[in-house]
User: What shape does this take?
Amino acid sequence: MAQGGRRHRAFIGSFTAAGGPGLVTAEVHPDTGALTLTGSLGTVPDPSYLALSPDGAMLYAVSETAEGAVAAFRVGGDKPEPAGPPVPVGAGGPTHLSVYAGHVLTANYGSGSVTAVPVRPDGTLGAPSGELRHTGSGPHDRRQRGPHAHQVQPDPSGRWAVSVDLGTDSVRVCTLDGGAVALHREIALRPGSGPRHLAFHPDGEHAYVLNELTPTVTVCRWDAAGGVLKPLSEVPVLPGAPAGDAYPSGVVVAPDGRFVWTATRGEDVVSVFAVRADGLRLIGTVPCGGHWPRALAEHAGFLYAANERSGDVTWFALDERTGLPRYDGSVRVTAASCVVFGRPAP
Assistant: This one.
Protein backbone atom coordinates (compact mmCIF):
# COMPACT_ATOMS: atom_id res chain seq x y z
CA MET A 1 0.00 0.00 0.00
CA ALA A 2 3.06 2.30 0.08
CA GLN A 3 3.31 4.97 -2.60
CA GLY A 4 6.46 6.74 -3.76
CA GLY A 5 6.79 10.42 -4.68
CA ARG A 6 7.91 13.71 -3.20
CA ARG A 7 8.65 14.05 0.49
CA HIS A 8 5.67 15.31 2.44
CA ARG A 9 5.73 17.09 5.73
CA ALA A 10 4.29 15.86 8.98
CA PHE A 11 3.26 17.94 11.96
CA ILE A 12 3.22 16.38 15.42
CA GLY A 13 1.43 17.77 18.48
CA SER A 14 2.64 17.18 22.03
CA PHE A 15 1.87 18.12 25.64
CA THR A 16 4.32 20.77 26.85
CA ALA A 17 3.02 20.32 30.41
CA ALA A 18 4.45 16.77 30.28
CA GLY A 19 7.79 17.88 28.83
CA GLY A 20 6.82 17.80 25.18
CA PRO A 21 8.46 20.19 22.69
CA GLY A 22 5.15 21.63 21.44
CA LEU A 23 4.61 21.65 17.69
CA VAL A 24 7.10 19.35 15.94
CA THR A 25 7.83 19.21 12.21
CA ALA A 26 9.13 16.27 10.22
CA GLU A 27 9.74 15.11 6.67
CA VAL A 28 8.15 11.87 5.44
CA HIS A 29 10.19 9.55 3.24
CA PRO A 30 7.95 8.72 0.25
CA ASP A 31 9.05 5.09 -0.04
CA THR A 32 9.55 3.96 3.57
CA GLY A 33 7.16 6.27 5.43
CA ALA A 34 9.98 7.09 7.84
CA LEU A 35 9.82 10.39 9.72
CA THR A 36 12.85 12.65 10.04
CA LEU A 37 12.40 15.40 12.62
CA THR A 38 13.29 18.86 11.33
CA GLY A 39 12.40 21.20 14.18
CA SER A 40 9.99 22.22 16.90
CA LEU A 41 8.15 25.30 18.08
CA GLY A 42 7.14 25.71 21.72
CA THR A 43 5.18 28.98 21.52
CA VAL A 44 1.77 27.43 22.33
CA PRO A 45 1.10 25.42 25.52
CA ASP A 46 -0.13 21.87 24.97
CA PRO A 47 -0.86 21.87 21.21
CA SER A 48 -2.45 18.44 21.54
CA TYR A 49 -4.40 18.39 18.29
CA LEU A 50 -3.67 19.90 14.87
CA ALA A 51 -5.56 20.54 11.64
CA LEU A 52 -4.52 21.94 8.25
CA SER A 53 -6.44 24.44 6.15
CA PRO A 54 -7.95 23.05 2.92
CA ASP A 55 -5.13 24.57 0.83
CA GLY A 56 -2.46 23.28 3.23
CA ALA A 57 -0.96 26.74 3.77
CA MET A 58 -2.11 27.14 7.39
CA LEU A 59 -1.90 24.86 10.40
CA TYR A 60 -4.20 25.29 13.40
CA ALA A 61 -3.57 23.92 16.89
CA VAL A 62 -5.66 23.75 20.03
CA SER A 63 -4.05 24.76 23.29
CA GLU A 64 -5.46 22.11 25.62
CA THR A 65 -5.31 24.16 28.80
CA ALA A 66 -7.88 25.12 31.42
CA GLU A 67 -8.28 28.50 29.69
CA GLY A 68 -8.44 27.02 26.19
CA ALA A 69 -7.18 28.62 22.98
CA VAL A 70 -6.53 27.99 19.29
CA ALA A 71 -3.45 29.14 17.37
CA ALA A 72 -2.63 29.59 13.67
CA PHE A 73 0.67 28.95 11.89
CA ARG A 74 1.81 29.57 8.32
CA VAL A 75 3.46 26.45 6.94
CA GLY A 76 4.28 27.44 3.38
CA GLY A 77 7.96 28.04 4.12
CA ASP A 78 10.76 26.00 5.60
CA LYS A 79 9.25 26.04 9.10
CA PRO A 80 5.94 27.01 10.76
CA GLU A 81 5.55 30.68 11.58
CA PRO A 82 3.01 31.89 14.18
CA ALA A 83 0.23 33.88 12.50
CA GLY A 84 -0.84 36.06 15.38
CA PRO A 85 -1.26 35.27 19.08
CA PRO A 86 -3.39 32.32 20.29
CA VAL A 87 -7.10 33.16 20.37
CA PRO A 88 -9.00 32.22 23.57
CA VAL A 89 -12.01 30.04 22.78
CA GLY A 90 -13.92 30.94 25.93
CA ALA A 91 -14.03 27.31 27.04
CA GLY A 92 -11.82 24.85 28.88
CA GLY A 93 -9.73 21.94 27.67
CA PRO A 94 -10.15 21.94 23.87
CA THR A 95 -9.07 18.46 22.69
CA HIS A 96 -9.84 18.56 18.96
CA LEU A 97 -10.38 20.98 16.11
CA SER A 98 -11.29 21.07 12.44
CA VAL A 99 -11.78 23.59 9.65
CA TYR A 100 -15.37 24.00 8.49
CA ALA A 101 -17.22 26.65 6.50
CA GLY A 102 -14.62 29.37 6.95
CA HIS A 103 -14.19 28.71 10.65
CA VAL A 104 -12.07 26.66 12.99
CA LEU A 105 -14.27 24.58 15.28
CA THR A 106 -12.92 23.36 18.62
CA ALA A 107 -14.32 20.53 20.75
CA ASN A 108 -13.94 21.63 24.36
CA TYR A 109 -13.76 18.62 26.65
CA GLY A 110 -13.64 20.53 29.93
CA SER A 111 -16.57 22.80 29.15
CA GLY A 112 -18.60 20.32 27.11
CA SER A 113 -19.05 22.65 24.15
CA VAL A 114 -18.08 23.48 20.58
CA THR A 115 -16.65 26.90 19.70
CA ALA A 116 -16.53 28.53 16.25
CA VAL A 117 -13.59 30.81 15.47
CA PRO A 118 -13.74 32.67 12.12
CA VAL A 119 -10.83 32.38 9.69
CA ARG A 120 -9.88 35.64 7.99
CA PRO A 121 -8.98 35.72 4.27
CA ASP A 122 -5.28 35.60 5.14
CA GLY A 123 -5.77 32.50 7.29
CA THR A 124 -5.44 34.24 10.65
CA LEU A 125 -8.10 33.90 13.32
CA GLY A 126 -10.69 36.34 14.59
CA ALA A 127 -12.55 36.38 17.90
CA PRO A 128 -14.95 33.46 18.54
CA SER A 129 -18.27 33.93 16.80
CA GLY A 130 -20.33 31.30 18.62
CA GLU A 131 -20.41 28.45 21.10
CA LEU A 132 -22.79 25.51 21.36
CA ARG A 133 -22.97 24.22 24.91
CA HIS A 134 -23.79 20.54 25.25
CA THR A 135 -26.09 19.35 28.01
CA GLY A 136 -26.66 15.97 29.63
CA SER A 137 -24.78 13.24 31.47
CA GLY A 138 -24.27 9.49 31.48
CA PRO A 139 -24.28 6.54 33.88
CA HIS A 140 -20.50 6.45 34.48
CA ASP A 141 -20.19 8.15 37.88
CA ARG A 142 -16.67 9.54 37.41
CA ARG A 143 -16.46 10.29 33.68
CA GLN A 144 -20.03 11.25 32.74
CA ARG A 145 -21.27 13.71 35.33
CA GLY A 146 -21.64 16.28 32.56
CA PRO A 147 -20.93 16.82 28.86
CA HIS A 148 -17.42 16.34 27.47
CA ALA A 149 -17.14 17.22 23.79
CA HIS A 150 -14.15 15.25 22.50
CA GLN A 151 -14.16 15.72 18.73
CA VAL A 152 -15.75 17.92 16.06
CA GLN A 153 -15.42 17.59 12.28
CA PRO A 154 -17.31 18.24 9.05
CA ASP A 155 -19.11 15.38 7.36
CA PRO A 156 -17.94 14.30 3.86
CA SER A 157 -20.66 16.35 2.15
CA GLY A 158 -19.59 19.55 3.91
CA ARG A 159 -23.18 20.27 4.92
CA TRP A 160 -22.81 19.46 8.59
CA ALA A 161 -20.45 19.61 11.54
CA VAL A 162 -20.52 16.54 13.78
CA SER A 163 -19.45 16.61 17.43
CA VAL A 164 -18.84 13.56 19.60
CA ASP A 165 -19.53 13.83 23.33
CA LEU A 166 -18.08 11.28 25.76
CA GLY A 167 -20.05 12.59 28.73
CA THR A 168 -23.53 12.43 27.20
CA ASP A 169 -23.19 9.24 25.11
CA SER A 170 -24.26 11.09 22.01
CA VAL A 171 -23.27 12.59 18.68
CA ARG A 172 -24.56 16.01 17.70
CA VAL A 173 -25.12 17.10 14.11
CA CYS A 174 -24.74 20.87 13.80
CA THR A 175 -24.87 23.74 11.34
CA LEU A 176 -22.99 27.01 11.22
CA ASP A 177 -25.34 29.93 10.65
CA GLY A 178 -23.80 33.39 10.58
CA GLY A 179 -20.91 32.15 12.67
CA ALA A 180 -23.15 30.59 15.33
CA VAL A 181 -23.07 26.84 15.95
CA ALA A 182 -26.65 25.52 15.95
CA LEU A 183 -27.87 22.05 16.90
CA HIS A 184 -29.66 20.18 14.11
CA ARG A 185 -30.03 16.77 15.74
CA GLU A 186 -28.64 14.78 18.68
CA ILE A 187 -28.20 11.02 18.25
CA ALA A 188 -28.11 8.87 21.38
CA LEU A 189 -25.66 5.96 21.60
CA ARG A 190 -25.68 3.16 24.14
CA PRO A 191 -25.64 4.55 27.72
CA GLY A 192 -22.18 4.28 29.26
CA SER A 193 -20.37 3.71 25.96
CA GLY A 194 -18.49 7.00 26.18
CA PRO A 195 -18.04 7.93 22.49
CA ARG A 196 -14.68 9.61 21.83
CA HIS A 197 -13.96 9.90 18.09
CA LEU A 198 -15.81 9.30 14.83
CA ALA A 199 -14.47 8.53 11.35
CA PHE A 200 -16.48 8.56 8.13
CA HIS A 201 -16.23 5.90 5.44
CA PRO A 202 -15.21 7.26 2.01
CA ASP A 203 -18.59 6.17 0.62
CA GLY A 204 -20.12 9.04 2.61
CA GLU A 205 -22.85 6.71 3.88
CA HIS A 206 -21.26 5.09 6.93
CA ALA A 207 -19.42 6.22 10.04
CA TYR A 208 -17.61 4.48 12.88
CA VAL A 209 -17.74 5.82 16.44
CA LEU A 210 -14.97 4.65 18.75
CA ASN A 211 -16.14 4.34 22.35
CA GLU A 212 -13.72 5.03 25.20
CA LEU A 213 -15.62 3.77 28.24
CA THR A 214 -16.43 0.44 26.64
CA PRO A 215 -13.83 -0.84 24.13
CA THR A 216 -16.14 -0.97 21.11
CA VAL A 217 -16.86 0.63 17.75
CA THR A 218 -20.42 1.64 16.91
CA VAL A 219 -21.13 1.15 13.22
CA CYS A 220 -23.54 3.78 11.90
CA ARG A 221 -25.32 4.70 8.71
CA TRP A 222 -24.96 8.35 7.71
CA ASP A 223 -27.63 10.24 5.75
CA ALA A 224 -26.04 13.46 4.54
CA ALA A 225 -29.27 14.72 2.98
CA GLY A 226 -31.08 14.78 6.31
CA GLY A 227 -28.12 15.03 8.66
CA VAL A 228 -29.07 11.78 10.38
CA LEU A 229 -26.71 9.28 12.02
CA LYS A 230 -28.27 5.86 12.67
CA PRO A 231 -26.44 3.33 14.93
CA LEU A 232 -26.53 -0.17 13.40
CA SER A 233 -24.25 -2.40 15.47
CA GLU A 234 -21.49 -2.37 18.09
CA VAL A 235 -18.27 -4.37 17.70
CA PRO A 236 -15.53 -5.02 20.34
CA VAL A 237 -12.09 -3.62 19.47
CA LEU A 238 -10.30 -6.40 21.38
CA PRO A 239 -10.48 -10.19 20.91
CA GLY A 240 -11.08 -10.72 24.65
CA ALA A 241 -11.91 -8.82 27.81
CA PRO A 242 -9.21 -6.26 28.75
CA ALA A 243 -7.27 -6.66 31.98
CA GLY A 244 -8.47 -3.24 33.16
CA ASP A 245 -9.84 -0.03 31.67
CA ALA A 246 -8.97 -0.18 27.98
CA TYR A 247 -9.21 3.51 26.94
CA PRO A 248 -9.64 3.31 23.15
CA SER A 249 -8.45 6.53 21.53
CA GLY A 250 -8.16 6.91 17.75
CA VAL A 251 -10.03 5.54 14.72
CA VAL A 252 -8.97 5.71 11.06
CA VAL A 253 -10.63 4.43 7.89
CA ALA A 254 -8.51 3.34 4.93
CA PRO A 255 -8.78 5.68 1.92
CA ASP A 256 -10.16 2.81 -0.17
CA GLY A 257 -12.69 1.95 2.56
CA ARG A 258 -11.60 -1.67 3.00
CA PHE A 259 -10.23 -1.44 6.55
CA VAL A 260 -10.69 0.40 9.84
CA TRP A 261 -7.93 0.78 12.43
CA THR A 262 -8.36 1.72 16.08
CA ALA A 263 -5.90 2.35 18.92
CA THR A 264 -6.38 1.21 22.51
CA ARG A 265 -4.18 2.87 25.11
CA GLY A 266 -4.67 0.51 28.03
CA GLU A 267 -3.59 -2.46 25.90
CA ASP A 268 -1.02 -0.62 23.72
CA VAL A 269 -2.44 -2.16 20.55
CA VAL A 270 -3.77 -1.27 17.14
CA SER A 271 -6.85 -3.23 16.08
CA VAL A 272 -7.60 -4.04 12.46
CA PHE A 273 -11.11 -4.45 11.06
CA ALA A 274 -12.26 -5.57 7.65
CA VAL A 275 -15.21 -3.58 6.34
CA ARG A 276 -18.08 -5.86 5.38
CA ALA A 277 -21.51 -5.18 3.95
CA ASP A 278 -23.02 -6.05 7.33
CA GLY A 279 -20.53 -4.08 9.46
CA LEU A 280 -16.99 -4.71 10.74
CA ARG A 281 -15.03 -7.89 11.37
CA LEU A 282 -12.08 -7.82 13.75
CA ILE A 283 -9.06 -9.30 11.97
CA GLY A 284 -6.59 -8.97 14.83
CA THR A 285 -4.45 -6.68 16.93
CA VAL A 286 -0.77 -5.71 16.80
CA PRO A 287 1.43 -3.87 19.36
CA CYS A 288 1.53 -0.13 18.80
CA GLY A 289 5.32 -0.03 19.23
CA GLY A 290 5.13 2.19 22.30
CA HIS A 291 2.96 3.03 25.28
CA TRP A 292 -0.41 4.82 25.35
CA PRO A 293 -1.25 5.38 21.65
CA ARG A 294 -3.29 8.56 21.80
CA ALA A 295 -3.94 9.02 18.09
CA LEU A 296 -3.62 7.27 14.73
CA ALA A 297 -3.12 8.63 11.23
CA GLU A 298 -2.84 7.05 7.78
CA HIS A 299 -0.69 8.51 5.02
CA ALA A 300 0.33 7.08 1.65
CA GLY A 301 -0.04 3.46 2.71
CA PHE A 302 1.53 3.79 6.16
CA LEU A 303 -0.09 3.96 9.59
CA TYR A 304 1.27 6.20 12.36
CA ALA A 305 0.69 6.07 16.11
CA ALA A 306 1.42 8.96 18.49
CA ASN A 307 2.40 7.19 21.72
CA GLU A 308 1.98 9.69 24.50
CA ARG A 309 3.55 7.98 27.52
CA SER A 310 6.51 6.34 25.77
CA GLY A 311 7.15 9.62 23.97
CA ASP A 312 7.44 8.48 20.37
CA VAL A 313 5.72 8.26 17.03
CA THR A 314 5.79 4.83 15.39
CA TRP A 315 5.00 3.92 11.81
CA PHE A 316 3.82 0.76 10.13
CA ALA A 317 3.67 -0.55 6.59
CA LEU A 318 0.19 -1.82 5.75
CA ASP A 319 -0.44 -5.19 4.15
CA GLU A 320 -2.53 -4.56 1.04
CA ARG A 321 -4.46 -7.82 1.41
CA THR A 322 -5.14 -8.00 5.15
CA GLY A 323 -4.71 -4.41 6.32
CA LEU A 324 -2.43 -5.64 9.12
CA PRO A 325 0.27 -3.12 10.16
CA ARG A 326 3.94 -4.15 10.26
CA TYR A 327 6.16 -2.10 12.55
CA ASP A 328 8.84 -0.24 10.58
CA GLY A 329 10.31 2.43 12.89
CA SER A 330 9.87 5.30 15.31
CA VAL A 331 11.10 8.76 16.26
CA ARG A 332 11.33 10.29 19.71
CA VAL A 333 8.73 12.97 20.52
CA THR A 334 8.09 13.43 24.23
CA ALA A 335 4.37 13.38 25.15
CA ALA A 336 3.31 12.97 21.51
CA SER A 337 -0.42 13.45 20.98
CA CYS A 338 -1.25 13.51 17.25
CA VAL A 339 0.19 13.50 13.72
CA VAL A 340 -1.16 15.25 10.60
CA PHE A 341 0.29 15.34 7.09
CA GLY A 342 0.75 18.36 4.85
CA ARG A 343 1.78 19.13 1.31
CA PRO A 344 5.13 18.10 -0.16
CA ALA A 345 8.13 19.88 1.36
CA PRO A 346 9.63 22.68 -0.78
